Amino acid sequence: MKNRIKIERAILDITQDELAKKIGVSRQTINSIEKGRYVPSTVLALKLSNLFDKPINEFFFLEETD
């Protein structure tokens, strides 16, 4: 699964650590999501959606191989 979390963070001008604190996870979790090593739970994706004020499918999307 690909994502635009890093881009959305840049738009809000926040660090991985700041984003992690806002949604209640570790900075390492944010790093893993951004690098595509971890697929977030539905609850976590919804928290990100609320924070970015965008639908989930605007920052998470499937690759052809998924």
UniProtKB/TrEMBL annotation:
Transmembrane regions: none
One Pfam family hit: HTH_3
Domain HTH cro/C1-type stretches: 5-59
GO MF assignments: DNA binding
Keyword annotations of the record: DNA-binding
InterPro entries (UniProt xref): Cro/C1-type_HTH (IPR001387), Lambda_DNA-bd_dom_sf (IPR010982)
Entry keyword annotation includes DNA-binding: yes
Source species, domain of life: Bacteria
Name the UniProt record assigns to this protein: Helix-turn-helix family protein
Organism this protein belongs to: Kordia algicida OT-1
